[in-house]
Write a structure and sequence with these properties.
Helix content: 40-55%
Radius of gyration: 20 Å
Distance between the termini: 37 Å
Number of helices: 16
Bound molecules: uridine-diphosphate-N-acetylglucosamine, uridine-5'-diphosphate
Strand content: 5-15%
Oligomer: single chain
Number of strands: 16
Largest sheet: 6 strands, parallel
Structural class: alpha/beta
Length: 397
Amino acid sequence: MLVFGTRPEAIKMCPVVNELKGRPGDFDVSVCVTGQHREMLDQVLEAFGVVPDHDLSIMKPGQTLFDVTCGVLLGIRAVLEAVRPDVVLVHGDTTTSFAAALAAFYLRIPVGHVEAGLRTRNLYSPWPEEFNRQAVDVLAKWYFAPTDTSRQNLLREGKPAERVYVTGNTGIDALGTTVREGYRHPDLDWAQGSRLVLLTAHRRENWGAPMHGMFRAIRRVMEDRPDTKAIYPVHMNPQVREAAHAELDGFDRLRIVEPLDVLDFHNFMAAAHIVLTDSGGIQEEAPSLGVPVLVLRDTTERPEGVAAGTLKLVGTAEEDVYREFSRLLDSPEAHAAMAHASNPYGDGHASRRIADVLTGGTCAAPAVAPAEGTAGALPGAVAGEAAPSAPEGGVRA
Ligand code: UD1
Ligand code: UDP
């Protein structure tokens, strides 16, 4: 049984669902969505043609972490008891993943963790995701680590090496099916002839003052550069919408639009001059597309993209965002240095490797050349520190 509930989990789990369903002799597949997200989840299910067998439909407007944790934990019990799967697969670091893994553990059902081993080692950044992923890794039986860095993180915590597999990230599997030559969209036509900035933001620890500050910085930078246009598919969270409209309304070179279908979003990303984001998944996708990303966070658990040079961790303070965004727009050299495609997150066959492991086999890790200047395990990153010398865990701005 695969359990997921939010947009990014769905984007990275649907390729696994389809891979497992393609091997009917090996797997009897059941999909349980929690509905932690509703519209943004359904968009993805439709894009990948996945129809859930069970839907807990837990989402409430303005839900708290208590609502989500209790909703999933109590809701999934009957489903797990009825189906009694041999393994439950959860993904990454959401509260759906944590609560579903805990429920499986309470029923003594083994858990496989897809995208295991990412770390910042700061429980409050990202919050609550760093706790969620560490907690899932405490009780998982199989660890599907996207990179060798995440594998090393798990081994350092004493996880048994024979149950940690480097598979690549299943998000890269998804990316292989979405980006198309000759893709067109009215919003991209609007931006034609300008440098396109693509913006997303949603992290809980950025709600309030940090989010207002970063939006103000982006607007100030763009107001002085008339050859830029921005598209911002705004997350449905009311906290995010309030900040976005308060700071960005009335600026006609920045379009706030509804969340884009994943196919559209990936093609917008491929067309962008710069991506500004606090998203996790986008940090994995952009290096494959060679699009420079300024990461609007204080830490990242994705140091591979920082080391590859495509991502720069800029923090959330208004003046830091102002300085780094201006610099990247004004320096063709700085932009060129970041705009080269690299593939630290896999070769697009992560789902196949996961299926192979679950049938009792093993898997050879995807061939990934370490980025220049890095050997073996990378630390996570912290804003303001150079990635390769950062302490173990994430990278900080
Ligand atoms: C959640 C995850 C986060 C992940 C993010 C991806 C947790 C604690 N957070 O954060 O790790 O990075 O998803 O986007 O697991 N809403 C809708 N429709 C939707 C989705 C959200 O209206 O389709 C609104 C609702 O008012 C909902 C609110 O957004 O209550 C917050 O959703 P929630 O899943 O609690 O938090 P996210 O910030 O989306
Ligand atoms: N995404 C999308 N439509 C959008 C914005 C993002 O399909 O309008 C995709 C994006 O390509 C990535 C994922 O959603 O695969 C990231 O989701 P999000 O930023 O919500 O969550 P995170 O990755 O931070 O957990």
